[in-house]
Amino acid sequence: SPLLWDIRSGLSAGRVQSTVLKWICDRQKEIEEFATEEYYEVSAELREGLLFLLVEPVDTSLKTLHLSSQKQVEDIIKDLNKLEKNETEVKLKVVDIQSEKKTRYPPPPFTTSTLQQEAYRRLKFPANKTMLLAQKLYEGVDIAGEGRLGFITYMRTDSVRISEEAALKRRIYIEKQFGKVFIGLMQRKSKKGNIQDAHEAIRPVSISREPKNYTNKLPKDLLDLYKLIWERFVVSGMAAEQSVEYKYLSKRKDYYFLNKQKEVVFEGFTVFTGENKKKEKPHHLEKGKEYVVEKFFWEKKNTEAPIPFTEATIIRKMESSGVGRPSTYASSLNVLFKRKYIRKEKNYLLPEELGLLVNTRLCENFIEFIDEKFTASIEKKLDLVEMKKLERLQLIKDFYSSLQKCLVQTKKKPFTTKKNNLESEPEKKNLCPLCNKGEIKVKNTGRGKKYQQCSRFPHCEFMEYI
């Protein structure tokens, strides 16, 4: 950390926070360097209302065909609409039908990280807020007429295990509410190695404490989070959804079109979530039969730039990469906010100028120490120390030896970024006409076309071709 003080006094670096900062800065760089490209898709609408997409003619994966110019699209549609001899209507002929059985299992009960992700996605709660609310639900809330009640189990865990007693009560509840056939047959096990299994998954203390019974007894945020935990616990014990996916491949002249449909044969856990209620039943087609085309049409699209991280997606990456612990995900982000290395804009995590400078300094001199693989390997070694399979002093010695060499080299390198770089922002030229904050930059599409785009993209959507 002291080596960062030539930027500004009091700055800090850390094994987890610096890795996360690097991810956020790298993603911002990807966005700024991304060159969007336009492409076109052609669709066919049958008289029955079904939509077919034009696909690659020889591609067994049946990928949607992306065309490069409007003229190419118009020529294809013109050719498709041209009637052959003895034709009175434009038709597509179904040449192949594929069907595949699908099983979709319910999500497991919450761990710390998945609770933070889902609370952000569904409720827009920052990770820190989620943990504070979960702490209250765990410690207990005073309920009129019932005294002080704890609503959930311990909230810092990376296990999806639940006790046999809780599983049995859940089975009884599901059978009573939906029927025996909706009870799940499998007990969830975590796929990750060395799970801290001392605590169960996050679940309600009692499944009989239904959220609807506490609508006017719990503050709204507490109730919303408890409802999320309670519903996930119930769903995780239900049967899987069974469905069949149909792929209808049709042909006209030398062009192939694809239609996909899903038929749910057993609702499983979705009978609780209600996600299949609004879905229409599939319209089955016959192989070898021709169907009248109502119209062919095209749609212009643009390749999409990478999306900045949100709190949910950065926590998911921390978990999948083995960086940090469930109990430290929220606090690691908090440090980055507190140090003003990052900010939140439209729920996206963006690097501040200070964060970019700190990241540059760390990448130039300590890249091996902020690499996610190094950070994850340290987590594993700490686990080995805890299990008494590795000597603590040996771990410290190995780490310090590598760090010391790096520090010696770093002190020899000049660092050109001055403190006053942060004092004032240079005046922007070519100010964006839409947001009046970003700067207009000229980019190439990769197909020889140039376009103007706001430097704040995707937060500002200004873009026009030159």
Your description of this structure?
The chain has 466 residues and is an alpha+beta fold. It has helices at 17-33, 70-81, 112-123, 127-139, 164-178, 220-236, 270-273, 311-321, 329-338, 353-370, 372-386, 392-412, and strands at 38-46, 51-55, 91-104, 141-143, 147-149, 241-252, 255-266, 290-302, 342-345, 348-351, 440-444, 450-454, 463-465. The chain folds into three domains: 2-34 and 308-417, Topoisomerase I, domain 2; 38-98 and 246-302, Topoisomerase I, domain 3; 112-236, Topoisomerase I, domain 4. The strands form four sheets. The protein has a six-stranded antiparallel beta barrel with strand order 1-2-7-6-3-8. A hairpin with a 3-residue loop joins β4 and β5. The longest helix is centred in the last third of the chain and has 21 residues, at 392-412. The radius of gyration is 28 Å and the shape is globular. The mean pLDDT is 87.
